[in-house]
Please model this.
Amino acid sequence: MLAADSAIRIVGVEKQFDTQQGPIRALARTDFTVRKDEFAVLLGPSGCGKTTMLRLMAGLEYPTSGAVEISGRPLWRDEQRDDSAAAHMGIVFQEPNLFPWLSIEDNIALPLKLRGINKVARRERARKLCELVGISGFEQRWPRELSGGMRQRAAIARALSYDPEILLMDEPFGALDAITRDAMNIELQQIWLATSKTIVLVTHSIPEAVFLADRVVLLTVRPGRIDEVIEVPFARPRQMDVQSDPSFQSIVAHLRHRLQH
Model:
């Protein structure tokens, strides 16, 4: 795939962490390309390097070897992160990490404030994003007044505030109950369809991966490497009842078998 067609390119990337107990090889040599506007999901057993790969994409970790490109631009130059390349990305973690002393509106608008955007424009953008993620009417509430799912919606809105091309998500729904998680999967799909972002999501949930993804990227046990990439064929938008489709169940069963073996 040409660089012009890619949002993220990982070329020969390896990652090793040095610890007091000795070096830990988190990722073996890996090559992978995330297409523009696609929804890619990283799936694998615990400790396989999914989060490490996501952090390498985000520029939060420096690769031991290899290169990461964002929209055709090197993310690192002489061990210095190119912040202009990193600015293409928004990140959502498992915990919403909202500031408790700021309203929901101010939490969402904070990245814009740090970029020097005026208050009127910040407020307008935050309110539009609240509508997009389904929390209109809660702009002036404190984070403690919202449910876990609503706080995570606010975290997604904050990551979208400066209109990044790429959204990186590290198990954003892992702490939610099953019903709320299903609702958030539907909501995230709608956000993706409405914004045409490139999304890379890490999850432990096989059904969640298959439901959300254009492609599921399956990693091996540590040191992680790409074991298989599976194209998911179901039309969009998807509803939860697609999970009863025999083809959906077949992909889930195949991925579960690969994970177990």
Summary: Residues 97-163 form one domain.
